[in-house]
Amino acid sequence: MGFLLLFIWCVHVSKGGIYSSKVKYILKKGKPYLWVNEKDMHNVNTIIDDRASLAVASPFPGPLANLFKSMQKLPARIAITGNVVPLKEEKVQLVAESLREVMLSEQRQINEAPYTVSGVLSSSNLITTSRSENLKELLDGVEEYGVYRFNLSSCMFIDGHGRIHEVDMEAIEASKVDPLAFLSAKLIDGINRSESRRRALVLFCFVYLNADARDAFMLSVDRKGFDVLAKVPSSRLKDGTSEYVWKQFRFPFKEEALDVETFCHQLVKMEEEAVKKVSGYSGLT
Ligand SMILES: *[C@@H]1O[C@H](CO)[C@@H](O)[C@H](O)[C@H]1NC(C)=O
Ligand SMILES: CC(=O)N[C@H]1CO[C@H](CO)[C@@H](O)[C@@H]1O
């Protein structure tokens, strides 16, 4: 769950243009449900033509988007096409009910988080980044929303290089939401705002990948590991200095982290291990 972009193909937007807007969604039993603000043009468009497409990227803090822009890259994302089906009032209540349950369980996880987790989260400075906080206003009834079920017909994964990979429909139906997704933006921000944790990322690049990084940011986290953007030398110039470029590195976990607590533990363990390894190298300053 989180933010996503909604692109709905529409016949009556000026001169065959495509209208797009940001909508909120949840996944329930592998199916996306969308909340579209009452004032959004999509509500009219869908009556005329129910075909739709969605672009979904995993949530990350704003500063990373600027970094991507400077690298002339786009974050990896999922593109799905299909049609939207407006929900009847009783069905809306059911979907709202599961949204409420998810939010409660996530809030409980945050409240009961042990020291390792709250340590990472406390350096996060984003005001509304956990998924629950983003979705809460849907239930508060501050604004009116139309709720739709998204009926999928195709799905593509677009990687950071813009390469397109078709995703099997059965794989989507069987897929589960990553257990870290609801807090990922807060985790990433918490790590990037901490000098010592960023130094640890630089160390990971050196110890685990033999990459001599100048700086590093957490880019994404999931149960299987994490991605780091690191500033590494690309080439040596004539005067002996190096030119630096931002590059993406993947660090897989030995064991999957099935909750936020395990994720933070794995990270701390890797930090300790890396420090131990580096202090083992003689002559390193
Ligand atoms: C869902 O999509 C399939 C084709 O992808 C279509 O046959 C079916 O009628 C759609 N269902 C609804 C309720 O629109
Ligand atoms: C890329 C990114 O997210 N950068 C942020 C990481 O955290 C620092 C705070 O230490 C911010 O200043 C950066 O914008």
What gyration radius follows from the Cα positions, in whole Å? 21 Å
Low-confidence stretches: 10-15
The helix/strand order is: EEEHEHEHHHEEHHHEEEH
Which strands sit side by side, in order, in the main sheet? 1-2-3-6-5-4
Average pLDDT score: 81
Terminal-residue CA separation: 44 Å
SSE class: alpha+beta
What is the CATH first-level class name of the largest domain? Answer: Mainly Beta
What does this structure look like?
The protein is 38% helix and 31% strand. With 285 residues, it is an alpha+beta fold. It folds into two domains: 8-176, Pnp Oxidase, Chain A, CATH 2.30.110; 194-282, Alpha-Beta Barrel (Split barrel-like), CATH 3.20.180. The strands form two sheets. It has a six-stranded antiparallel β-barrel with strand order 1-2-3-6-5-4. Strand 2 (19-28) and strand 3 form a beta hairpin. Helix 4 (115-122) crosses helix 7. The protein is globular. The termini are far apart.
List keywords for this structure.
Haem_oxidase_HugZ-like_sf; 2 domains; 10 strands; Split barrel-like; binds 2-acetamido-2-deoxy-beta-D-glucopyranose; globular; DUF2470; alpha+beta; Pnp Oxidase, Chain A; signal
